[in-house]
Specification:
With 223 residues, the chain is mainly α. It contains 12 helices and 2 strands, in the order H-H-H-H-H-H-H-H-H-E-E-H-H-H. Helices cover 70% and strands 3% of the residues. The relative contact order is 0.07.
Length: 223
């Protein structure tokens, strides 16, 4: 059938031929050459970069890690006095807790909303989901004021100042708050779809909600 299609469509035969393969490899090579040049140049010293073409280094190898050391650890200049390593560590310190906290809280909340029935549970679930429409930018300044000065009605304090502005906790908390609505919604849809017979069998065997959550819901939710 493929042969018949090729006969009726000569263009298909051309684009599946060795010529098309050669053209693709040629374009790939041309596209890759600048990237290879940047990679080789990154291992050369300043004088070698200014004094010779990068491809001559392939014939007379002379590599150094000074550039990478300057970027990560700093080279004493004002622009790279400390390097990017502290900022890289800050990114890890921020992103890991800001990811773990919402997932842990959202998983427990999603289980409670899906399998622990109480008055107003559906309204609470839809209210949490509706929080996604709140623009994040509108909450940044109120959160900063809350962290630094607390909340007051007139001269009566209703929430104390947390004093976490400029700290890692001042970033973890907003990330967790803004991620919870979507995380709870997604996890609720999955957890509520787990077999009801499995939950009922666990309760018949004497398992409480925490045991069901820890030994059934979490293992099934890992994927």
């Amino acid at each position: 059938m493929a042969k018949k299609l090729a006969e009726h469509n000569p263009g298909r035969k051309i684009f599946s031929s060795k010529i098309a393969t050669t053209v693709v490899w040629f374009i790939t090579f041309i596209w890759t050459v600048p990237t290879v040049g940047l990679l080789v140049t990154s291992f050369k010293g300043e004088k070698a970069i200014l004094g010779e073409a990068w491809w001559t280094t392939l014939l007379h190898p002379s590599f150094t890690l000074a550039n990478y050391k300057g970027v990560f650890l700093g080279d004493g200049t004002e622009s790279l006095s400390a390097g990017v390593l502290p900022y890289f560590i800050n990114s890890i310190v921020i992103t890991l807790p800001a990811t773990i906290f919402p997932i842990v809280i959202a998983t427990m909340a999603a289980y409670a909303l899906a399998w622990i029935r109480f008055r107003g549970s559906d309204f609470l679930f839809f209210s949490i989901f509706a929080l996604q429409v709140v623009p994040l930018q509108m909450a940044l300044i109120p959160l900063l004021l809350l962290f630094t000065g607390g909340a007051h009605i007139g001269s009566i304090p209703i929430f104390p100042a947390l004093g976490i502005a400029g700290e890692f906790a001042g970033i973890w908390l907003p990330h967790t708050m803004f991620a919870l609505p979507l995380a709870i919604y997604l996890l609720h849809n999955f957890i509520s779809g787990l077999p009801r017979d499995l939950m009922e069998a666990a309760h018949v065997d004497g398992a409480n909600h925490f045991t069901v959550f820890r030994r059934i819901v979490l293992p099934l939710s890992i994927p």
